[in-house]
Specification:
The protein is mainly beta and 122 residues long. It has two domains: 52 residues, no CATH class; 40 residues, no CATH class. The protein has one helix and four strands, in the order ββαββ. A hairpin with a 6-residue loop joins strand 3 and strand 4. The longest helix is centred in the middle third of the chain and has 8 residues. It is elongated. The relative contact order is 0.13. This is 40S ribosomal protein S6.
Length: 122
């Protein structure tokens, strides 16, 4: 999708290096390229968006769910910064661990265990 093209389908434009979508090899070189217009239509299957400002209502599945961090910081200085620790404090106690269900291959039972990253620059 190219900004400034006011249509909801594809058009063939004569582009030079200033517009984007095409990088000429020589000075003054232009090429006709097919670009999509900036207007959103029903034939677009995926549209990436960014929430800039949160309004009054919740967006289902986007702003109403708070996902926990999957993995915490791995570097010791980043852990100190996150938990406001000094150089003397033990960083190993503040490592963010996560619970993992490990299936036993023969019995079919699952056991819980925790995983943590190997901390760098201790």
């Amino acid at each position: 999708m190219m900004t400034g093209v006011a249509t909801n389908n594809r058009v063939r434009l004569l582009l030079d290096g200033r517009n984007g979508c095409y990088k000429p090899l020589r000075n003054g070189e232009r090429r006709r390229k097919t670009v999509r217009g900036a207007i959103v239509a029903g034939d677009i299957s995926v549209l990436n968006t960014v929430v800039v400002k949160k309004g009054e209502g919740e967006i289902e599945g986007v702003t109403n769910d708070a996902l926990p961090m999957r993995a915490g910081p791995k570097r010791a200085s980043h852990i100190r910064k996150l938990f406001n620790l000094s150089q003397k404090d033990d960083v190993k106690k503040f490592v963010i661990r996560r619970e993992v269900a490990k299936k036993h291959p023969k019995e079919g039972k699952s056991t819980k265990r925790s995983k943590a990253p190997k901390i760098q620059r201790l």
